[in-house]
Amino acid sequence: MESKKTLIRGLAIDVIVVETMHTDAVGTLFYIAMIYVRHRRTGAQHLVQRTRIPNSGQALARDVQRNGIRALEAFKKAS
Predict the structure, then answer these.
(1) Between β-strands 28-39 and 13-23, what pairing exists: parallel, antiparallel or unpaired?
(2) Backbone φ, ψ for residue 52 (5° rounding)
(3) What is the DSSP letter of 63?
(4) What is the pLDDT of residues 37-52, one digit of tens each?
(5) 45 vs 62: CA distance, rounded Å
(6) What pLDDT does residue 42 have?
(7) Which terminus of the chain has fewer CB atoms gathered within 10 Å of its CB, N or C?
(8) In sequence order, what are the beta bridge partners of 3?
(9) What is the Cα gyration radius of the chain?
(10) pLDDT means per 10 residues in the chain (79 residues)?
(11) How far apart are CA 60 and CA 54, in angstroms?
């Protein structure tokens, strides 16, 4: 199982994308991406979105780098 962590730094918050993938010779068996928002001042980390669509975590990371925090406005805070 391979895990990849992408950190996108901002002025007040950091966006962390954690992708976990398990593959074999045939293809992808398991994929999950979890998107967290971490407040720099307090260090509190909140789960914003969880997805199982392959490579959607990297697409979201690119959108946040390009559009800033407004890319996350569509997501509700997950409990």
Answers:
(1) antiparallel
(2) -115, 10
(3) H
(4) 899 899 999 898 888 8
(5) 20
(6) 93
(7) C
(8) 20
(9) 13
(10) 88 88 84 90 90 84 77 59
(11) 12
